[in-house]
Amino acid sequence: MNWPSGGVIIDDGNREFAATGGTMRKGLWLGLIALFGCHDAAIAQNWPAKQPVRVIVTNTPGSGIDVTVRAVFEQVAKQIGQAVFVENRAGAANTIGIAAAARAEPDGYTVLATTSGIALAPYTHKSLPYDTTRDLAAVIPLGSLTNVMMTPPGRFRSVQDLVAKAKIEPNAISYASIGPGSTGHLSAERLALSAGFKALHVPFKGTAEGLLDVAAGRVDFFFNPVIAGLAMIQEKKLDALVVSSTARSSLLPDVPTTVEAGYPDSSYDFWIGIFVPSATPQPIMGQLYTEIRKALALPEIRNRLAKLGVEPMDMTREQFDAYFKKELESNATLVKAANISSN
After folding, report:
1. What is the C-alpha separation between 284 and 286, in angstroms, rounded?
2. pLDDT tens-digit profile of 49-102?
3. How far is Cα 133 from Cα 135, in angstroms, rounded to an integer?
4. Which of 120, 159, 141, 176 is nearest to 256 (CA)?
5. DSSP-assigned letters across all residues of 283-320
6. pLDDT at position 30, please?
7. Smaller CB count within 10 Å for the chain: N or C?
8. Helices (H), the chain
């Protein structure tokens, strides 16, 4: 494989500086930089020489996140000619798995696959065993799982109808989630802040219980990934009013986004992303990005993810890094505005 070599670029710069009469001290400094650059490049050229590459997934086996990650990395394993071992480290709002990845050796053999919750945890936990921005580097998103607002059949004509009724009396409308700080919780609070209403939060232990209570009419709405409630929507056991993502779902193309419905700054994207320890050499991050992007571009992988309700998020490493930092900022604002308590 012909991987990019950071050392060659730095070495070229050193020769150019020496030719223009630079001091010996500065030339030595640039030489040391080139040496370390060559070392990183040598490591990158040998990657992935060891077996296996370990992917820490912060969700339970068989979950939509887990299935998505396995589908992508099965293909990556074929491309790099090495085994990929998926390790599920769920719990504590994903922070157990994130901490394990943050402490791992930064050699490209430990990869973190987690959700947008990584950009929320710093504001919903009083203390974390890692520093999100210092210890981890964003590589590439695998895609987004669109959250859809599901309501009891026939209860509301539209999201505007729901909002109007919610404004009549604070907390007269209730919504389900799988716990404080979950994507369903944040999607509901973003809409409530934008639309100017307050609703009663009813947390459940799991998605199935929440869906059943909404279908039975005991709770008014539930933002949850499309795939989880799609069958009940198709069977008319639930109504789909809006999606909280920035774009419509390919599985529910006729359902508008919350912004399209007239509520600015109300969108919340639930995404799956790949991270590595921040000290991982840049050439290795680049290779990892290239291999994952190559896998995501294959029609068979796109089709598998589409059936899971995963929408593409085509970004460069730089774009994903900027997106992640913006998510951290917006979540800090949301948690404060919605008065979401820390654990």
Report:
1. 5
2. 877 999 999 999 988 899 999 999 999 999 999 999 999 999 888 999 999 999
3. 6
4. 159
5. HHHHHHHHHHHHHHHSHHHHHHHHHTTEEP----HHHH
6. 43
7. N
8. 6-19, 24-46, 64-80, 95-102, 121-124, 132-135, 159-168, 183-195, 207-215, 226-234, 282-297, 299-307, 317-338
